[in-house]
Amino acid sequence: MKVFKRRAAASAGASREASLACRPARNPEVQETPLDSGELLLTYPVRVRPWFEALARRLGAPAAGVQTRRLQLDTLGTAAWQLLDGQRTVEAVVQAFGRKFQLHPREAEVSVTRFLKELGKRGLIGLKAPPGAVRTAEGRPPRT
Amino acid sequence: MSAATATAAGRWCETAWNGVRLQVPAGWHPREVGRRYLLLASPAGPAMELRWGPAARTLPAPADYLRRLQPRNASRRIIRPTPLSAAWQEALAGFACQGFTWSDGGQAASGVVICCPACRKATLVQFFHPPGAGAGPAAARILTAFRDHGATQTVVYALFDIRAEVPAMFELAAQRFESGYFELAFRRPRQRLVLHRWGPAQVLLQGAPLATLGRRLLPGSDGRPEDLVVGAHRGLGWSQGPPDRGWQRWWGVLHPGERFRHYRIWHAADRNRLMGISLEGRLPPPHPWLEALCEAYESI
Questions:
Q1: Is B177 on the interface with A (CB under 8 A)?
Q2: Enclosing domain of residue B71
């Protein structure tokens, strides 16, 4: 059983060390709205796909090249988001997050990296690669 | 950090799983966990692998186990039997052992097959290292602390940040390690035991009473809970059983689905965790071992 359900590294993905050395930076177009609960509501623009926009235009809908979407973060997500200052590396964010909630290092790493992956998919953050980063495959021991 | 460089890091921690116990560098964490399998990884990658199992009838010699591991296809990696170093021999005194090494492309390992005449268990331990390098002094220290059976009637489980001493009559059935939730499930005839660990507690509770959260986290924990003190922590417990009076008692006898249920949850505030235990089955109380189990189940 794989703990924390992490998939095996892809054959041509970045190594773990290189991934942890990246600096996540927030998308400047994202707007933050603090809620009464202390959590954050993120509002961010999403560009409509050209084929969808063309279809909408043909159907008589007003042209909307950019749509606005919202994402409400929970307490843990808000804490992780506030640690993304563009200066800290992923590893530093993991350590700070783990310290704040007294998490096991591995548990903190999996939580934060999964969260960053989700933010990256939505275009809310970008990752600055460390200088001289090399893409290598992460090895796994052969079975005996 | 391989076994060759681990001693420089200093801190060591206990790792125990389903009958096997050892001390490993604090930076090594489980990467894969099976019923009788552990793969420990350091920040640099896989560091150590263990797999073990009971002998079927007679305990074979370690060299026989090693022969079974040899791949039939000659083009594949070949495992070479090697004599144990003096440090490993001293560490494993009392066991029947056979050392081995293999090298395959950019990977290599040194290991040992350990057969215990006392508990009739065979264990394969191997340390991964770059080709040409040895396993290092940390490996000998790990093997010195290696134990495959205990002297008490409990089995220790210590992985990540949880530690429990489970009565030996329970057999490990399943395990789950997810961010925020760990679960170890055990069984014995007519009874099922589950150890839970949730975190971070401050986020889960958020001002809500423990009873409300406990009812949500432990399905089946209905009714009014009783206050408990587990170690230095405040907690709650629920106990339910089939009715024991009048016709309802006979109804319970005729319907074997009726179960005794015990749930406990407590807040380890110093570790920011919620610890819980579920015990379900057809065996009626008292369970004298339950108190000791709760006392020894902790977040470390």
A1: yes
A2: 6-144
Using an 8 Å Cβ cutoff, are B13 and B24 in contact?
A: yes
Report the CATH fold assignment for A15-124.
Answer: Arc Repressor Mutant, subunit A (1.10.10)
CB atoms within 10 A of CB B215: 19
C-alpha to C-alpha distance for B188 and B250, rounded to whole angstroms: 25
Instruction: Please state the ipTM of this predicted complex.
Output: 0.78
- Give A41's DSSP letter: E
In this complex, the residue of B107, B160, B203 whose CB is nearest that of residue A75 is B203
Nearest residue of B to residue A140, measured between CA atoms: B46
Give the Å distances, CA to CA, from A30 to A20, A67, A90, B91, B278: 23, 13, 20, 58, 44
Q: In CATH, what number is assigned to the domain containing residue B225?
A: 2.60.120.1690
- Per-residue pLDDT tens digits for B225-241: 888 888 889 999 998 88
Whether A3 and B32 lie within 8 Å, measured CB to CB: yes
Tell me the chain B residues in contact with residue A138 when contact means C-beta distances shorter than 8 Å: 45
Rounded Cα distance between B80 and B65, Å, is: 13
